[in-house]
Amino acid sequence: MCGRYTITVTLEELMLRYDMYDTFMPRYSPKYNVAPGQPIMAIIHDGQRNKLGELRWGLIPEWAKEEKIGYQMLNARSETLADKPAFRKPFERKRCLIPADSFYDWKGTGKHKQPMRIMLRSRELFSMAGLYDTWTSPDGNRISTCTVITTESNEMMKDIHDRMPVILPREKEAVWLDRGVKNVEQLRPLLQPYPSELMMAYPVSNRVGNVRNDDELCIEPISLLI
């Protein structure tokens, strides 16, 4: 699964990477330990251009009766998107990019789990494939939320976890965001494990297990404990 990630670039770097030049995000700041339930940066296409905004991590389907279902929808398995009621319509028409420069996962079992930071060897920003939806609460409050799509792990990740987020090749991002593309068979080939040779991982402190820790110490390399 994908349960924590980082986005440590400046807003200017983020806007440049995704060709957005008039975005104003007063609350933006680099994040070293993004966690479920938090508002996160996401990119959609409005039919004319890319737009950056906040979505809450944990998808609440538009038909949901209760808000708490979002905590069960942090990730969506790529293999069953078209089969699950919560993801079927968003897969067809509400797709987003979730920018990151690394994600965390835990290696090992039981009490001896080592947090690992996983990233591109180039250390560049990348786009996790996501879905979004908007839910209206009984009192009329509209909440826009999202989920991270996962796939089977590549060879490097298999030593850490059997699932990983779908990282889209840069040249495929526009297709994923294109609202005119509704044929899921055209989209399925995008949901593949990212090439192992382009990725790397290193151990980090157990500090990332606590959502209150959100600073540069979270990404500092440490000696492998297991």
UniProtKB/TrEMBL annotation:
**Which protein are we looking at?**
Abasic site processing protein
Listed InterPro entries: SRAP, SRAP-like
Q: Which keywords annotate this record?
A: Covalent protein-DNA linkage, DNA damage, DNA-binding, Hydrolase, Lyase, Protease
Q: Which domain of life is it from?
A: Bacteria
Task: Quote the EC number.
Answer: 3.4.-.-
What the entry lists under Pfam families is as follows:
SRAP
Which organism was this protein described from?
Paenibacillus qinlingensis
Entry keyword Protease: yes
Protein family per UniProt = Belongs to the SOS response-associated peptidase family.
